[in-house]
Write a structure and sequence with these properties.
Number of strands: 8
Distance between the termini: 138 Å
Largest sheet: 8 strands, mixed
Helix content: 25-40%
Strand order of the largest sheet: 1-2-4-3-5-6-7-8
Amino acid sequence: MARFNDCDTLTSPNDSASDKTTNNVNQSVRWQGETFKNSIDSMKPSDTGSAHLPSLSLTNGNSDLVSQIKDSVKTLEKDLTAFEQDIAKLQAQLNPSDTTAANPTTPPGDKTPTNPATPPGDSTPTNPATPPGDKTPTNPASPPGDTTPTNPASPPGDTTPTNPASPSGDTTPTNPASPPGDKTPTQPATPGDTTPTKPTNPGDSVPTTPPGDKPVAPGDATRPTIPAGDGSPGQWQQQTINGMKYDVLLPANYDPSKKYPTVLYLHQLDMGTDEPDLINEVNPWFNSPTYRQNNPSIVVMPLLDQSADPSGQTVNFGGVSNDQQAGETNAIAALKQVESNYSVDSSRVYVTGNSLGGIGTWDMLTKYNAVNGTNEKIFAAGMPLAGNDYAAGGGNPDPNVVNQLKDVPIWAIHGADDQQVPNSWDRSLSQSLANDPNFHYTELPMGHDVWDTVYPDQTYWNWLFSQQSA
């Protein structure tokens, strides 16, 4: 009995408050108690009146011995009862307050954790990865303290950028490519002033429009109302006049009962010999959805066969020499034939051309403008690109020619660095006609090929189609 009485002196295990030690002590006490109880039970009499004592065979002649055994059993039963009470006291000493722990691994004093991995004291985390103390982040990746970012990639503190690529502080750019602080550029790729002006001092060599300017339709002219056209591509119709081929492009849904503005286009050197190549070049200008929707018009394109004269000295649209050229004469004849065959608004006939065609445009404007034309009055306005008029003086224009161009709506465009056709003619006229509100000159920051910039730009066509002769 002394072995179990020693347990009464244990008030706590060596490792205080350790679940492992508590379990070990409880198991040891229970095991020893069960062993003691089983020993007593084996000594109790059975239903036959004999005790289960393996070394004794009880008979009626051993009454004294039986009495002694019965007394010993009663004594042992009393001791067992006392021992069980001692066990209860010992368990109470080892676990004084935790009798209803829901989880053996839960630290004493915290009986209702919602998640075993949750730090003590924080029983309602919305996300196990959320830092303690911040229970309502809208995005686990958001920095602590900033719980409402509209974009995880946005810098902390800036929660409403309209474009992640926009510079800080500028949240409403109209174009991502626009310089910061400038939200309404008319053309991002073109710096500078957008309105062509005239030199204030006649004789100044500065062109009327500084290089790099984005052209805006000059003047106060109001374009006549034109019904919106069909943007579907048209089919060039090949025709001939005096042995010269020319192509005609009618507007979509051509209606003979309506009058259409008409453009005479003069091509560059050697392009008339290769008609398919020429068509491919001009289609983006005259046969595009944008042009056909905005400018329902008839386009006339003469084709010069320059196979015998690749340099264009004798086969051209005029302006190369003082000799009257068959190419110029036939181009005017083709235009007149179109006026006879189709419904043309004779007050809105225009001429334009590039390079060799620009040279021819200047010569035709001198001879056939509707105001002061020396031969006939046909063109309400003209738009020469990269042109010159060598026959009229080149860089030193003939004063008589200058007078013939007064009051004629002209918008000349040239490249500042043109090395093929000098811009001296255009610059000289911009000085001589500086006070003429109908003359406009734009010099672009490029070389010779200005037409790929000008013809696709509706700005120029808006101006041209707004001109009308009396």
